[in-house]
Amino acid sequence: MGMQKWIMSGLFFAACAFAVVLMFTLPGKEQVAEEEKPTMPVVQLDAASAEATVKASCVSCHGDQLQGGVGPSLQQAGGEHDAEELYSIISKGRGQMPSFKDQLAPEEIANVAMWLAEKK
């Protein structure tokens, strides 16, 4: 009988220790927010390719000169957002803007984000 009690208290102690470990290893709110931000792949900027992608995917809402339309002007996008922020917005969408992660490859989005980030 004494042995069983000892095993149960050992199990209880192990469960408590596990709970404490979990508390410290589970990501906090800040870490979760970080993880939701898609990671931008490293690409070499190819302006011609970026412009082609923008003409195909962005001008219908942002205007043929990126002057804005349904969507905001992107002519100074780099003054407002860095490439990683732009990558996240294009990938996930924001407000009225749809997500493009299913239409464009991550490398294409990264290339467009880098291209837009230079527009200041």
Automatic annotation (TrEMBL):
Q: Which SUPFAM superfamilies match?
A: Cytochrome c
Cytochrome c domain: residues covered: 45-120
Residues binding heme c: C58, C61, H62, M97
Q: Which keywords appear in this protein's UniProt record, sorted alphabetically?
A: Electron transport, Heme, Iron, Metal-binding, Transport
Q: Does the keyword Iron apply?
A: yes
Gene Ontology molecular function, alphabetical: electron transfer activity; heme binding; iron ion binding
Q: Which GO terms describe its cellular component?
A: membrane
A Pfam family reported for this protein in Swiss-Prot or TrEMBL: Cytochrome_CBB3
Q: Does the keyword Iron apply?
A: yes
Query: Modified after translation how?
Result: Binds 1 heme c group covalently per subunit.
Secretion signal, residue range per the UniProt entry:
none
Question: What protein is this chain from?
Answer: Cytochrome c
Q: Which organism is it from?
A: Paenibacillus albidus
Originating gene: cccA
